[in-house]
Each structure stands twice: as C-alpha cells, then as structure tokens.
Amino acid sequence: MVRLEFGEMTRVGLVLSALAVLAAQGVGTAKAADMVRDYDNPGVCAEQRFLGKITNRFRHQVTHVPNLPDVDIVAFNDIHQHRYLGASENWPIGRRYCGATVALSDGASRSIWYLIEEGMGFASIGDNVEFCVSGFDRWHVYNGRCRVLR
User: Fold this and answer.
1) Is a pLDDT exceeding 60 seen at residue 52?
2) pTM, 2 dp
3) Are residues 130 and 65 in the same domain?
C-alpha cells in the first residue's frame, strides 16, 4: 500500500483507504436481500440523526410555505426501509428509501417517505436526507403523493 502524506491525500485516497480498512475487517457489499422491504429491522432509517433533521426541516417548511397547517412532528411510528440501492461503479451514491407514519401535533397521522443519500451531506461529509409528508408537498416537489420518494 502506498502511503500518502496528509497534504497529498485526496478524497479518492480517503475513500480507497476506508474501503481497504473495511475489506480487511470483512465488511461485505450489499446483497440482493438488502433491496427487500424490512419492517422488523428499520436500521439506518430509524437513526435519530435523520429523524431529527426531518423534524427540524418539517418545522421550517410549515413555517415558511404558505397555507400549510402550523403543526409539528411529535413521533415516528412503523419505520421501515423499503428499498436499498447500494453504491456501485455506475451509481456512486448509496440510497436508502424509508417510510413511516408520523404523528402530528394536531392529533393527525400522516405517511412520510424519505430518502437517505450516503455521502451527500454538506461538502460531501455525512449523509443527506430528503423527505415528503403526505399532504404537505404543496408545490409537488416530489410529484403527486410523494411518488418520487416511494
């Protein structure tokens, strides 16, 4: 293995180093079973870092988009991953498609669909999450009834 000085290491070098470490630890790649709906093990979809981002961004959305009810997300229920598309040579961004039911502060329950994109956070650090709460996509950003994220 070629050692690079820190100043010479590029993002590609960091990724290759991380992959080499994972391979040495026996971490495998995604299997076909990963693409199956998994209600019993929500895994990454249930991580608080993503649910917190969704809750905060939903609050911002209902505050700044005209004619949306002034409600908050108070709970996530029935969290599940319904599709996983791992990173590959042709598509370098791993994607997890998740769904849940959210309880709103007005007592209503709504379906929520969200997408977690691996490595697409700010400056490509961390993960990005996109979400759509049924009935709250006033401008059809995710097509009718959140179809893009399903």
Assistant:
1) yes
2) 0.69
3) yes
